[in-house]
Structures
1.
Amino acid sequence: MDGEQFKQNSEEMSSYIVKYLDNISDYRVFPDVAPGYLRKMLPEEAPVKGEEWQDIMSDVNTKIMPGVTHWQHPRFHAYFPAGNSYPSILADMLSDAIGCIGFSWAASPVCTELETIMIDWLGRMLNLPKHLLPFTDNCRGGGVIQGSASECTLVTMLAARTTALRRYKEKYPDIEDGVLLTKLVAYCSNLAHSSVEKAGIISFVKTHQLPTDDQYSLRGTTLLEAIQLDEERGLIPFYVCGTLGTTGCCASDAIDELGEICQERGLWFHVDGAYGGNALICPEFSYLLTGFEYVDSFNFNPNKWMLVNFDCSVMWIRDKTALTSTFNVNPLYLQHENDDAAIDYRHWTIPLSRRFRALKLWFVIRTYGVEGLQKYIRNHVKQAKAFEELVWNDNRFEVLGEVTMGLVCFRLKGENSLTERLLKNINDSGKLHMIPSSLNGKYVIRFAICHQYASEDDVSYAWDVVKMMADEVCRPPSRLLRQRRPSVLDNRITAFMHTTSSQYAEMLRETPESPSTSETSSTSEDDIEVKGEQEDEKSLKASIAILESRFSDAINIPNVRGTRDEINNARSPRGAGSHRGVRTVSDSTPHSRRRKQSVFQRPVAYEIDAFGKLKESFRVQRLSFDNGEQKNNSRLNNRRMTIF
């Protein structure tokens, strides 16, 4: 692909992206595919020769898009927002075109210098303590852009571990590092992100998850009790991770209480604000900064709630030498003459290679400004509050946890199984996508505001879906509603049903007569359920096609004469015997059990399906004929056929 081809294809791709985002509501929010679907669609080996761009884009539509979970969909309410905006997309496009690997100042000076400036801009936007900012005089603080909050937690835990081992090695010089390592213990709440536990596994240290209070917050008294108990056991506490905006319910730990204890006992205090930290750009959330004077490190993700595309997690640290002394590996080929005068971020992270992530921060902040980003966050909070009010107004539901940001955790009152069924029905419908959480043993549904332009209409739609699904879950199975006047579509379906049954009855009347009996066959019939959307003509045709297949003998064989075996062979394409929906009679059947049968249908009631639509139920009842007279055989099983 040369420059001219790239120009043409990039214009087409830009149009494709805009069309996708503008019409994303047309997609099913969660893909209807099974694991392994793509392997069946792609060749086993890579192409030997290059392929045409048009063919690649064609496969994007037919093979890639069907398997996409649409995180930018207005009906996507799972996890947390995945930041996305056109300025960020354009910045990544330019960054990819520049193609530099900014592991040091010499590798690409602008990568390092713009990153440091963006760290300072964001720190001031969030009103962080000055000891964390990079340009504060006589301070050793600074910041770096990592790939994710998980990396931030791991990096700070490794730095804290190195610091603790050095300190205790000086105190106990005769004890091996490996022995000291087995005694180190870190702390977090039982609602902290799973990355804290994973960081402990990688760091070979114990991690204790502590219980929260009734507001799902980790308190200082709980931490202090755990520390004292572990010290009595001979363990060495060294690291505490607090959270601003937990994943489970967006609760925040008591930062001031935890920080004070950490300072008194010499523990590293890290605060994970991956989602909630973004809200600090709004003055009304400044109360969350209480206790930040004790913080040794802090991170938040602009790629969650600041319109910046993944990946971009910003981290600040009180003492940058704690990082550089932990990760400093300085071979000759990476050294340069400005080592002492410039920052080399390769000493701040685990990977050597680094992307030009600061560019998209610069694009987004300049495009929207602080006010634009504040407006975006405040709108999400507003919509979450609106959804919370709708939940509280329905006495079947309850909200767990205080709604302070863009997340609402709610559940049906009663057993957890009710809420589990509700969430499964919602997600299976494809109308919304949400995920669960567990709060002190209670199963809850997380409703996160994620769409960039989330509106009241989106919230109302989501609540309507939740209510309709709840009606289905909470309604007794046998509950029926009063019959309504049939629609034109109902009449068409009913006419088809009666036509089919009359043809089938006529067919049986013309077969040779046999003595009737009141005995019934021991063969039981399964329920038949034929489904189709009433409003959809295609679904109607599909429903009729299924009915035709069930009663094909009634439609395709209006007049059948011959032996009973011949009749049975005509009834079932599989030969003599019985097939679903039709009970047959053979010459081998005992004389006393032979009879003629027919099926007729009549509407008996209307029910509400999972989507709140009325559906018409037909009672399919077997009748026996004796000497041409129709008699209702009450001993025969009834079946229900439903069309909706």
Note: The first helix runs from residue 3 to 22.
2.
Amino acid sequence: MTAIRNGRSVSSRPRSACVRLTSRINYAASIGFVVIALASCGGGGDGGRTPTALLNKSVGRIDLSPASPATLVSGTTTTLNATAFTKDNRSLGTASVAWTSSNEAVASVSAGTVTAKLVGTAVITATSGSVSSAGVSVTVTAGAAAQLALRTQPAGATSGAALATQPAVEVRDAAGNVIATATAMITAALASGGGTLSGPVTATVVSGVAMFSGLTITGTIGARTLTFSALGLTSATSATFNLGAGVVSQLVIATQPVAGTAYAAFTTPAVVQFRDASGNTTPSTANVTVAIAFGGGTLGGAATVNAVAGAAMFSTLTVNGTAGPRTLTFSSSGLTPVTSASFNVTTAPPAIIGLSPSPATISTVTGQNPATVNLAISNTGVFPLTNLRVQSISYSPIAPAGWLATTFLSGSDAPATIRLTATSAAFAIGTYTANVVIAGDGAATTATLTVTLTVAPTVTNTYGTTASKVSVVNIGASISPGLVTTTDGAVSTTDPTVTFSARSPAIATVNAAGRITAVSPGQAWVAALSTQANADSVLVIVPYATGPVLKSDLTKLSYAVGDTITIRVQLDTRGLSVGAVTATVTWPVWTGSTGVSGSMTFVDITTTASPMAPVTTVNQTVNVIRIHGASAAGVTGTVLLATVRLRVARRGLTGVYLNASELLGADFTNLLPTATFTQYPVIVP
């Protein structure tokens, strides 16, 4: 507002404006500015005050004192001072700064006090906000020698041999710095574990380190530590390491042998160990050989044994001979032999003839040679059983006699094997017995084996007639091939143990009575199984539900070498009209050392009865017959394409395979996708 005072216009400022200005001045001072009062809050007249000027107090730089590089001995300290200045170079005095070291392990700093630790160089810096001082370099040197410490721990200790890893010991100051100028003499000693420490047990410090060489520990295996000492210095102890067994130097009988009877294993077998000079068992796997040192006789069982973990056990050893005292000697290459304490061997009990199986049974059926039976003869006693022989054979009934033959297969000393063979096939139905008396040297008594020969009638199961061993059965249809049981060639009561099994039940199933039902396309064997007679099978061919079937009227499975097989190749159109067909008849070709041959040989082919006037080609090199037939009007029903004859040339399992590469309807429709092609096994026993 403006007032007239003493004839002049005077401006005055409201009281509230003065208060606001004062507040701003106070804030400026609080953030580091220097406040200078220039005038009062009033105007140019009385009561007015001049405005206040603000000066910048923020840190522009920090100087450290002393600023020159310093060298400190480890463990000592020095003090640095930090002075702050404004940007216009006005001193702010001792500032509140943060102190840092570039390497705290070498030198640490707190409130300007620097403490030397490990040998090296660190840079000390003071910081306020974003402003940092120039660094002061501090170099730390080692202090006075105070202690010993291991640079290299001892390791690889075996009794009597120098440590594989020899220790290295350093002289250090209190902070752990190596004293390169130290020249102390360091002495090594066993700290724990016992034994003897040998070799140079003192070593001279060179450049702060004493390198030991040749330190050797001799003693029992186990954990060890070493201690290292020097005059005026704190000693050091190594980490724990293990002392192992040393080089083998001796054989030791750890377990003395205790014998029972001659020819029998020892009741307490000898155990021999490979040991070092301190008596430690080594991990040797060398062999030890035993011999009789005193008392005579021979040794049985294993006389040379390989050690396991340094120990050789003679668990199968026997002493064979007369009763009396014995000693044994044990030897191994490069070592001094050792001799056992004396032990006694008693007289061996006699041998005992053991027979297995006993009694023995031979079973056969009329008209067949009986099977042979092998009899094992063992010695269940102790004394050796030798010169085994059949002393006599008696028969019941007395006639027929001489039907049992015996043959030793593996020598006549136990253990041995005798083959028992019934020598005739002309036995009537019944049971026959032979008592075989077996003797042997060393046995006090003979042994008698009862052999029973059982002759049963020949029972044969035939599943399917000659006309139904191979059958083509449509899906959903069923057949009953029939089961016939004969006893010695005469039809008899049906075998009660027969069960029926379909090998591929997804194609054909069979019920408990042997009736077969076709399920899906394919070929399936169905078997009649018996627990007291033979098994027999039939083959079922299941065609697709619709479409032609290329087949034959073969129903037989089994043939003999030289038989002629007549194959009527037929096309069942199954309601369709067929205009053309190219069919093939094939059978296996075998390639052997004598060249290429077939299981069957081609005889001839006839097509005169076919309404499709086929043209045929025969390739006997690869056993393929091609049949090309056609009819302009088309054919229906079951049509004969050709009659092929083959002769069986060799034993084994073979077959005849019918296929087609062309099959057209009278309207030229391709019928191959829905056609069924068949194959017929030929079994030549």
Note: The longest strand covers residues 652-665.
3.
Amino acid sequence: MFQSRAKLKLGYSINEFNLGQETMRSNELDLFISNAEKIKKGELIIYNLISNRFIFSQNFFDIKNIDWGIQVEKSPNSFQMHFQALSMLVPLTVPCLLDKAKDWRRNLELGIDILISWINYEESDISITNPYTWNDHTTALRAENLILFTFALQEAGMLNRKNYNIITGLLCKHGEYLSNDKYYFKKNNHGIFQDRALLYIAFLLEDHKEWIEKAKLRVMEQKIFAFNSEYVHVENSPGYQAVVMNLFKHISEFLQFFGDEFGKNLYDEILQAAEFMTYVLKPNRKMAELGDTDGGLGGYLKLSSDGTLFNNPRLTYAATVGASGEKPRFNSRFYKKSGYYIFREHWEKKFFHESTWMLFKAGYVTRSHKHSDDLSFVLYTKGEDVFIDPGWYNYMWGDKFRAYLTSSMAHNTIVVDNKSYSTTDENSYKTGLLKTEKNDAYDYVLGFNDIYPGVQIDRHFYSLKNAILLYDNITSNDKHVYSQFYHLGLNTEIVSSSQNEVLISVGSSGFFVRIKQLLSGTQSEFYEGDFNSSEYGYLSRGFNHIESSKCIKFDVEGYNCNYMTLITIEDEHGNVEGIENLNFNLSSNKLSFSTNEKKYEIFLEERRKMDLTKVKIQKEKNGFSFINESVVPEGVEYAWYLINAETKREAYKTVYMKENKCFFDISEKNTKFWVKSYIRSPLFQRKMNIVGSIEIKSSCEDYAIEHAVNYGLRIKENSYKKDDDLTYTFYVDYEYFGDVKFQWLIYKDGGAQESIYIDNTGVFSYKFKTAGNYTMMYYLRTCGGENEFYVFPSFQVN
């Protein structure tokens, strides 16, 4: 049993610690009371303090023999995390703190029994194999649940010597874990949870000021990383922006209450992030379901006691349908660095929910919660979602629905050869927004996606308020099948269709959305998820929730291909509000239209792209020269790196320069270098690749030059086979000029099991030691930074 000489600072109230305030203000108190009664009858129910919702396991427990390693059928890792966090204590505790429990003493006595049962489990050998007993997120959440429970014991007069010693011992151990840099998760929301929990513990226990200072230093580093200069959170999900803002808000208010000025400075800066949230809310008050966002507003954003959201009047206006706050000034917003364009037709209270709203996305900074959704867009109009982001489902590696919903095939974008792409950190420079323009009658954004090997995709997105013009320009030296996807909202129906045109009804509004392909040659296909043969057509609007939806796909095949697509929101007579004389001239690729009696024209033109296609390496007197002979647009700049093949470090490099050639005087002997070439456009789009190698032997005159036949990393196929009951072999068919290192990651029942590194081979055999549900994945790192990540479908080993 945990023992400690530490002392609790008794006398604080739960309000002073601002812990679980959203839960305490919940209008679902009856649910807490009823679920506490179910737990007392042995039903296994836990509460997620992050999203403020109950998780029902459909299992029962015996208080004398709780199975702390239980694996529920769906999302065993997420359930285990909250189970190990002792989240079962929350439904028992909250009614007691609000003086509404039917039998508060029985609630708290059962809580103590649960706590002692977990301590016995934690001290046993079997807990060592459970990755969720002690990890960054679990430990932080468990510490806060323990503190919440401690306040309930204190108010009930049940913090006797035995319980006091148990609690202080546990809190000390949690504080030591959370303060240890070895277990800290930098540059991630999990780390902020750790910081908040450490602050709570440090203030509740005597003589731990060093923990307070450490947590404050970490929080500042997390804030610098979490939001970019546009005050958009970097974890690719509006829902996580709200979570992180709440974390900083809680920390700020907590420190301010105790007179620490650090809290005020922190709060003032994060308030600016609320502006992005104003625009990412759809007119139906739901957040855009991008990345791992559950669109429901309540789980993420709750009005403060003063009736505002983060003291931002514009976000408050958007979230309350104009009932309070201040009307936002802008109808369209460009977040170029973050990769977002957002448009809203109007902010008027009348017909608030019917306003047209759209969002276009391209680009990312970190792979955290990132889906393969670049160049995708979503559309809402007349009170309905028309083109949707399908959601997230859960966090289970290898789960077939998770794999689908995070893939490019589940988004309204361009897909190559019916395959998704890898969203590694190293691939982030290959996609984003290149141009943004705001005109009187329309907005324009240009996004690009070069992550598919050997393929360059530009999407020109024109927003005409109640119409969208898409120009998808795709180039490649190889032949591919390209697909343009559209995923439909639940309250839409396909009214009519042909190979080039589809008409969609929008709920019961009497309005329609028309997709019209302006170029011939596309082949349309229609899908609806049937949980059997259909690989497309599914959406998720909650944890472990999945249902069928409709999907449209337009295919073309070739090398260099184009889509020119006009999307219009029409009434029953085919009229588009605010737009007249809409016409497309195919011979000149010109869209003309009138609005407010003014005429406008949009010419669709291909951007001159750049690529690394030809680099020459040659021996010169006293050194080597490098010439980039690729055909590129004007204004391109060049840079060069020589990477030591043994140390993997940069030995020679240049800054970006106008000249397409450079010279290095190399003095090393018996050394091999990888040659890495860079180019950068005036729009700051970059390309880089290993283009060859130089090996210098006994002297500078004794050398070998090798030019790469193909530039970049290409994954041709991933496959595996079962050798016997316990042994499987995994194959990665890849092409790359240069050294590679595979990191193979083995997950069992949702938890990390083992990590193995292998050099320069895509064949990996592994013998499993125990039965379970396994997921295999690899991270392929190259000497040139062209890295890839892949997850194989999960399988059962008996």
Note: Residues 779 and 789 are 5 Å apart (CA to CA).
